[in-house]
Specification:
The structure is a single chain. This protein has an eight-stranded mixed β-sheet, sandwiched between helices. It is globular and about 50 Å long. The chain is of the alpha/beta class. It contains eight helices and eight strands; from the N terminus they run ββαβαβαβααββαααβ. 39% of the residues lie in helices and 16% in strands. The protein has a single domain, classed as LmbE-like (Rossmann fold), CATH 3.40.50.10320. Bound molecules: zinc ion. The site of zinc ion has 4 residues, from loops. Pfam families: PIG-L (PF02585). Keywords: Zinc. GO terms for molecular function: hydrolase activity, acting on carbon-nitrogen (but not peptide) bonds, in linear amides.
C-alpha cells in the first residue's frame, strides 16, 4: 500500500469534457470535483455512451432509458453542468473499437476541452474487484480518442461533417483508478455531490434498502475521506492523470 501524496490537479485550463459509459458514473465519486471546477467559472460538459437502460432489473429498457436520462440531466445541473449528450451505444454491450473512438473524438472536437475526464478503464477497481466491460471500453476509447480528435486523417468523415481537428487536449484524468496520481479538494463540492447522486433516485432505491440520503452521504464522504489521507487530510476526489 503506497502512501505517496496525491498532487493537486492542474488548474491552467478552461474547458473539460467528461466521457463515461452510464448515468451515475460521474456521481459515484467525481462530482464534488466538478462542482469545485464550475464554481471557478470553468465549463464542464458530459457525454454518456449509453442511457443506462439496462441498469434496473424491474424496468424494461424502453422505460428505463428516458428515466435515467432525465435523472442524469437533473444530476448534472446540481453541479453546474448544463450540457449532457448521449451517444446511444447500447448499455451493457458497449464495444471498444473504431465506432466508439470516432463518436468520442467527434464529441471532443465539438467541445474542444483541454481536460478530458473518464472512468477507470482497467480490468479491476484494484485487487479482485472486477470492473464492467462498458467502463473498460469507454475508458480506453476516451484515452485513445483524445489523440484521434487531433488527427485530421484518422476519421476523415468528421472533417466532412464540419468537425475540424482539436489537438488541444492536454490531459486525460481517470476517476476510480486504483493507482491515482492527483486529487481535487472535495470540501466545497461535497454537499452538491450528495444531492447530485441523489438525483439518480430510481436507481439508488433499487440498489439499497437504506434511506437514499444516508446511503449516498455515507458512500461519498467515506470515499473522499479515504482519498484525503493522501491529500493532506482534506477530503478529496482522486484521478490518475495522463498527460498528452
Ligand atoms: Zn457505470
Amino acid at each position: 500500500m503506497t502512501t505517496t501524496q496525491l498532487q493537486p490537479m492542474p488548474s491552467d485550463w478552461r474547458r473539460a469534457l467528461a466521457v463515461v459509459a452510464h448515468p451515475d458514473d460521474l456521481e459515484y465519486g467525481c462530482s464534488a470535483a466538478i462542482a469545485a471546477w464550475t464554481d471557478e467559472g470553468r465549463e464542464v460538459a458530459y457525454v454518456l455512451a449509453t442511457r443506462g437502460e439496462a441498469g434496473i432489473d424491474t424496468l424494461a429498457p424502453e422505460e428505463c432509458g428516458p428515466l435515467r436520462e432525465r435523472e442524469q440531466r437533473a444530476s448534472a445541473a446540481v453541479v453546474g453542468v448544463s450540457e449532457v449528450e448521449f451517444l446511444d451505444h447500447r448499455d451493457g454491450v458497449v464495444e471498444y473499437g473504431t465506432a466508439l473512438r470516432r463518436d468520442i473524438a467527434a464529441a471532443i472536437r465539438r467541445h474542444r476541452p483541454e481536460l478530458v475526464i473518464t472512468l477507470n478503464h482497467r480490468d479491476t477497481w484494484g485487487g479482485v474487484a472486477w470492473n464492467t466491460p462498458d467502463h473498460v471500453a469507454v475508458g480506453r476509447a476516451t484515452l485513445d480518442a483524445a489523440g484521434d480528435a487531433g488527427n485530421r486523417w484518422i476519421f476523415r468523415e468528421l472533417v466532412e461533417q464540419g468537425l475540424e481537428p482539436w489537438d488541444g487536449v492536454r490531459w486525460v484524468a481517470v476517476a476510480g483508478s486504483s493507482t491515482p496520481t492527483h486529487a481535487v479538494d472535495a470540501t466545497a463540492g461535497m454537499e452538491r455531490a450528495v444531492r447530485s447522486l441523489l438525483e439518480h433516485r430510481t436507481y439508488i432505491e433499487v440498489l439499497t434498502d437504506e434511506d437514499p440520503e444516508t446511503y449516498v452521504r455515507g458512500f461519498l464522504t467515506q470515499h473522499a475521506e479515504n482519498t484525503g489521507k493522501r491529500f493532506g487530510g482534506r477530503p478529496a476526489v482522486a484521478f490518475e492523470l495522463f498527460g498528452r
